[in-house]
Amino acid sequence: MASPPDRIPPIVRRDRTSGPTRRSLLAGVAALGALGASGCSRVATASDTEGGELLERLRAQGVARLGIAGEIPFGYIDKNGELTGEAPELAKVIFKRLGVDRVQPVPTEFGSLIPGLNSQQFDIVAAGMYINPERCEQVIFSDPDYQMLDSFIVRKGNPLGLSDYKDVVEKKAKFATGAGYAEIGYAVEAGYKQGDILIVPDQVAGLNAVETGRVDVFAGTALTTREVVKKSAKAEATEPFKPIVQGEPHVDGGGFAFRPSESNLRDAFNRELHKLKDSGELLRILKPFGFTENEMTDMTAKELCGG
Length: 307
What we know:
InterPro entries: Ectoine_EhuB (IPR014337), Solute-binding_3/MltF_N (IPR001638), TAT_signal (IPR006311). By secondary structure, the chain is of the alpha/beta class.
């Protein structure tokens, strides 16, 4: 289904929930990705214009290509083959306001989103990506459209009494999280040996690992863990908590990523995002995907990038 000064390794992340299986989702994603690749040529390399000219090019061609990772609720293809998720739905609204009529999904693995963006496979990352200093060295971000705490998937009754990463370390729990997730860094910072972490594709695989006893706990975002366990008879989600980053409780924020040369597009996107925040329309757009008032935020990308 992210993730701040969190990641010890240079990570690139996120989660998913109940609904179509990951296999069926990726099948639909791959089909749409093929259409997207054939229907729209690669964006030309950045011009010498300060701040870039991508917005003007997108207006001219009438479509913006969104890098997604096939993860509910952030950005995915639904059972009807339609692009949806909190980030794509928000992008649709903002790009429409910017004079770009359509968006087109370009599916990839989460860890390939930033490389794909910088190699111009798509125009913007719309995957609810956590904003952190490591990623800020590679791309520029919009201000976050949401904030998020962490949570665990554990067996029913939480037999080991796990409530945070410190508990995982102290109780020698078998720990898993997703490929490229911020939670890798959080666990390592708490003292968990990185080589002992089981890395799985997403929170659906994490749920399966907990249910079958391969691990004691899977870490993800509070939103995705509470969604993925809804139909499970064997597992539950713990209460949300703030991971400890550099000795302090930390709240993550997720946003949209742009190539460093395209600050004009990022700035225009940000202006429309702030209008949606001020009007309350942002929550209306995100609410169908499980977001609440508690996930709304006034944090900035500058804060999350480390100043």
